[in-house]
Structure formats: structure tokens, C-alpha cells
Amino acid sequence: EEAALQRLCRRARTGKEPAAARFYREEGNRRFGRCCYGAAVRLYSQAASHELPGSPEVSLCFANRSAALFHLGSFEVCLEDIARAQSHGYPDRLLPKVLLRKAECLLCLGRLQDAADTLATVENKITMDGVMTSPTHQTLLKKLSQLKSKISEKESCPEPKQEAHGDTQRESEIWEENGSISGASSSLSLKFNTERGRHLVACQDILPGQNLLKEEAFVSVLCPGEGDSLLLQDSSENTWDTQVTNADLYCHRCLKELLASVPCRGCSYAKYCSQNCADVAWEQYHRTECPLGALLLTLGVFCHVALRTVLMAGFAEVSRLVEWSHDDDKDLCNAEARHKHPSESLDARTGTKGIPGCNDNGQYLSSYQAVFNLLPHAEKHCPEHKFLCMLSVVAICKKMQEAGLEAAVLNQKSSEKGSDPKLREKTSDELSPELKIMAEAMLRHVLQLQCNAQAITIMQELGSGEGAVVSKKPVRLATAFFPVLSLLNHSCSPNISVSFSGTAATVRASQPIPSGQEIFHCYGPHRCRVRVAERQQLLSQYFFECRCQACLDELESDDNSVSVRNSFCCPSCQASMQGEDVLSCSNEACALSVSRERLLWRSGHLQQQMKKALELLRDSKADEAIKMLLKCQMDAKSFLSPEHLLMGEVEDHLAQVYATLGKWQEAARHLERSIQIVERHHGPSSVEMGHELFKLAQILFNGFAVSEALSTIQRAEEVLSVYHGPQSTQIQELHEMKTCLLELPRNILQRT
Ligand SMILES: [Zn+2]
Ligand SMILES: [Zn+2]
Ligand SMILES: [Zn+2]
Ligand SMILES: [Zn+2]
């Protein structure tokens, strides 16, 4: 199976390939020529990631990218790239052109003295270079004199300084930190019992929107994103595609959105928002991960998280806890012999050691100790799964040993220096005792992840991004360990919501929580979206049967409101359809029957068509997109119930297209229909509702429908502040819209 793994790894390319660099740079030049500067920036970034650091080629990539950034108006980032090009040995003869760009940037930023200094350097350089008869030199000189006159122009009439923008006094939130749970509010307390395990309970009354927890991920790994399906295709040796994935869009360390990425010095995969992130990531984990890139991509994100976890913790801490767990296992065996009941033995354990994961002072910190104590449920995984996990972990450790990374893995972190650097026989197939400890911990983490992995999601913008209304959908960005967030038990109707910013999670109450009540997080799909039977099926990966109030109510009442809302209707007479595998029309006179499979195929097809319509919109073919969506709507009506979520989605997309065309009234009409459906499915104060209201506010704002806009802004604000807090960008944007509307001069109001 080693050969098979190697073959698989060959499809995931993380090495630097000069031919790929050439391909991406040419593609970038092509986009640049067509004035698609955003795409050009991304392609030059791809090219840079395939060039060797310090080579003239990589400096050319940065210089080209700086030109595209200049056109995008990102002057600060443009300056950074120019500096980067220079530090990587940009060819001297080409320098004047780049320096002129630098001067122009400085001019745009209002830094006149710096701009003048840069121009002086260029002038010197050009005269030093001597004869200047070539046409390029002539254009350079022309540009130079243009810039000089611009500077003197600006100097003579300085622009009024823009008022400091950040003076909006942001309401500070009430926040009192918990003394014994790191990052948590003092309104929570940590409880433990054998039935519910560890859990958090409100120790005072909590208001909706109140901040309950702010936690930085102990470790997080960026998910490669949708493009990773490509890894499964057999691609011929020399093709690269220009598709953009999460791996190109977000910093591999801090998850910040990338504009001009800094490539890793060793691989073409890792990209960072800044040199600092690149350096810190290298020190903490990437020096070990870099040569393993393809293997980690092939084995999947759980293995990658497990490896990064032990690298972040360091060998000393890992071995301390692994040894401790061995002692504990002995205790457990004794206890089990006595009670024959693992839950009771757990009790015995807490008797001596307090709540698992807490330190000696009884504090629960966001530490490796807490991560180590998350439940691996080792006895509940099926043997095949455990075996596969073990093979993966061993493959990683063997590769580390082969690549001579062992010293880096162990020395870099171990607190006591000089942990015997004795040379081991290279031919030995056996893992060293230290790597065996690392492997044991990694296996534990892989198993833990099945129940404890937290997805970091963000709302990603869809479509061209050039429309006035931004449509967003939640996207899984990374997989992470959040030891404190992991304390929350599950309910299908949770009383909190979680949002992410970079690698930090914020938990807010989504409803009033009286003192004494447990805090619940929803691990799976919300009860509005999925029927109880399917929900329980999905939750089985967490090794429990959900007995939350929502599930109990639904199981008991049998009135399945979700399935009624998301049901099919008869393609012939539009009456409702009933049945499981084969559905029959409820209208006796009709009696048509169709297989569920067929209906599911139709809704799958419908979703594909809708996706195509959005692609048309992205290619600025709005008219065709509308035609396609109207066809989708006709099709949907013929077999879906009027309240089906997909019916709402079609309306939502139609609204988006009309908004792109500036037809605000039509857009608002469609969006209002989508909102009705969303409200029925998710409830009037759900986060989904908040996002729909936000879009409607934007549309009404753009269409100058002042009073409707104001009342929609009000509603959106009420809902969204519960989920994202008063300081979130969405709330700020709503405030700006409101201020703008209230300040509108009367004459504009009368015109509409
Ligand atoms: Zn970063
Ligand atoms: Zn790397
Ligand atoms: Zn439930
Ligand atoms: Zn019928």
C-alpha cells in the first residue's frame, strides 16, 4: 500500500515547478492585458509561489503583481510588492519603471516628500545609465516629468485632510472574564457529571446577544477548498489550472483574506498574508510540514490537524501527557476490574484528579492539556477506521524519519536541550521511541477530531462582487481544535451562535438563557433544515443519540413540519405527495406515483441549473441568467411545494440578478418572497433571516426607497446584532446606510 500512497501523493503537487511559474505568469500577463487586474494578481501570486526565493524570476512576479495592484488602487500593498521585488534582486536595468510606479503610489497616498525623493533617485539612475535614445527611455522621461508636475501641483494646493474616520465611538460590550475558564464570560460555570460529561451552565441570567466566549483556536488548518476534487482526477503531467481555491485566498496561518500573498520559501502550497506570518508558521510547524505537503494533502485535513497539534505543543509536553495517560490507563483498568462500568470508573478518576483537562488549580485553559483531554471515544470507533487512522499516522512519522526531520520535530521544542542527538541507523524501519510517542498522540488527536473538530466558517462573497448587493454563502475555511468551545454539548435547537474572525471564535447567546440552564451548541444541521430521522443519522458520527427537546418533540408529535415544508408536489396536479420510497399523489382522482429517487434527481438537476445561472451572471450575461432562472422557477413549481427552500433560493438569485442590473424594485419584490420562505424555515430571528434582511436593506437603500429601507435596516440590525455583536462590520454598514439616508437632502427625496 506504500506504492499506492506514493501514487496518490503524486497528484497533490506542492513542490515548486518552474514550468508552472511560467504558465501562471503568462496567464497573468494575459489577464493584465484584458484589464482583469484582480485575476492577474492571483495568477502572479501563483507564479511567485512556484519560483525560488531570491531568484530574478520571483522578483519579476512581484513587480508584475505590483502593477496590477496599482490599477486596483491598493497602493500600500503595491509599495510592499515593489520592496519585495527589490529585495529579491530585481534586475537593475528595469528598475526605473518600477521606481516610477513607486513614486506614483506615494503621490496617490499623499506622501509628497517621499514621492519627490523617489523621483530624484530615478532621475539619477537614468542619467547614470547614459544614452537614452530607446523609445522605452523616452516614455520613462515623459512619465517622469508628468509626475514631477503633479507633485508640484499637489504641493501648491494641499487637499483638505480627510477627517479621521475611526472616531465612531464603538459601544464597548459588557465583558467580565471568567477566572477559571479561559476566554469565557463570568456568567458561565464548568460542570461535570457522568451522564452529561463536562458542560457549561449559565450561573446568572444571560441576555440575547451577550458575549459568552472568545477563543483563539489552539490549532487550525486551512481546508484546501473546492478545488481539491482535482486531486482525484488523473491529470496529465504538465497541466495547471487557473482555478482559485481557499488555499490561494486565505493566509495559511491566520486565515486573513489574501491580496498579495507571500509564498513559502520551500513549497508552492503554503501562502501567507505577510512575511511575519510566514516566519512564525515556519518556526512553529511549517518547517516540518513543508516537505510533507503532498502527503498531508492526500491523507486529509484531520491528519494534518493532528500533526500540527503535536508540533505546536512540543515534544516535552506531548510526552508528559502521553505518559500520564499510560498511568491513567492503569488506573482505569483497576477501576474497571472493580466496577465493570467505564462510566463509574470515570467517576473514580474525577475523584482523584478533578474535572479532566483542568490544571492543578482547577482552571480550564485553552492549552494542550485541555486538547489532550478531549474525548477520543477510542472504544466506539470501528476497528477498520482505527486501523486506517493508524496507517496514516505511521505514514507521516515514517516520512518524517526518512526526510531527516526527526531532530527538528524533537529538538525544536523539547525544553531540556540536547535530547540525545545520537544517530540512528537510516535503514532501520522501526520508528524511534520519541516518534512513537508523537505517533500515539497524533492517533489520539485524529480520533478526537471526529467528535471535536470545529469547522471555521465564513460568509464568502458569491458572484462577481461588482454588484451593489453582495450575496454571501457560508464556506468551510479551516478545521480546528477549540478546547473551550468543545465543552459545549449538542442540541438541535441551540441557545448560542458561533461566529469566526480569522482563527478566533466568538460565542453569543441567541436567546435569553436563565441562570442554571445549560449552554448548547449545534454540531449538526439545524432542526429547521433536516428531519429528525436524518438529523439523528448525521449526528451518529458523534456517538450519541440526540435527546434534545427539539428531537423529543418531533419524535413524539410525528407532525413533521420540516418534511411538510420541504416536500414535493404532484407534477401533474400540484397536490401534495406522500410516501417514502415511492410517493403517490394525495389527490385520489389523480393517483400519480413517482419514486423518491426520481424527485431527488430532479431537485439535484434544478440546483445545477441555478448554479449555471449564477455563472452566467458572473460572466456579465445577466439577461441569459434571468431567462435561465425563470425556467428554473417554472420547473421548481412543477414538483416542489410552494414553501420549499429551493423555491426561496430561486427568488433570491433572481433578486441578485435584478440588483446587478440596477432594477431595484424587481429585486426587492423577489427578495421579499425569498424572505417569506426563509422566515418560515428558520424563524424570524434566525441568522439566515438576518442575512436576507441585510440584502433587502441594501437593495432598498440603492433604490432610494427611504422609509422601507429604514425599517428594514432596523429589523436587520435587531437580528444581526444578536449573532455578530454591535461592533461587527455588518452592523457598522447598516449604521452607515442609516446615517446616509437620514442626511439625504430633501430634493433627492422628492425626486423619487
Ligand atoms: Zn497571516
Ligand atoms: Zn512550505
Ligand atoms: Zn436533537
Ligand atoms: Zn396529482
UniProtKB/TrEMBL annotation:
GO terms for biological process: heart development; methylation. One of its GO terms (molecular function) is zinc ion binding. Keywords: Cytoplasm, Metal-binding, Methyltransferase, Nucleus, S-adenosyl-L-methionine, Transferase, Zinc, Zinc-finger. It catalyses: L-lysyl-[protein] + S-adenosyl-L-methionine = N(6)-methyl-L-lysyl-[protein] + S-adenosyl-L-homocysteine + H(+). InterPro entries: SET-MYND_domain_protein, SET_dom, SET_dom_sf, SMYD4_SET, TPR-like_helical_dom_sf, Znf_MYND. Coiled coil: none annotated. Residues 251-290 form the MYND-type domain. The keyword Acetylation does not apply. Residues 186-524 form the SET domain. Residues 152-172 are annotated as: Disordered. Its main location: cytoplasm. It comes from the Eukaryota. Gene3D superfamilies: 6.10.140.2220, SET domain (2.170.270.10), Tetratricopeptide repeat domain (1.25.40.10). PROSITE patterns: SET, ZF_MYND_1, ZF_MYND_2. It is found in: Cytoplasm; Nucleus. GO terms for cellular component: cytoplasm; nucleus. Protein-lysine N-methyltransferase. Monomethylates PRMT5, modulating its transcriptional activity. May also act as a histone methyltransferase. Plays a critical role in cardiac development. Acts as a key epigenetic regulator of gene expression during cardiac development via its dual activities as a methyltransferase and negative regulator of HDAC1. PANTHER family: SET AND MYND DOMAIN-CONTAINING PROTEIN 4. This is Protein-lysine N-methyltransferase SMYD4. The gene is Smyd4.
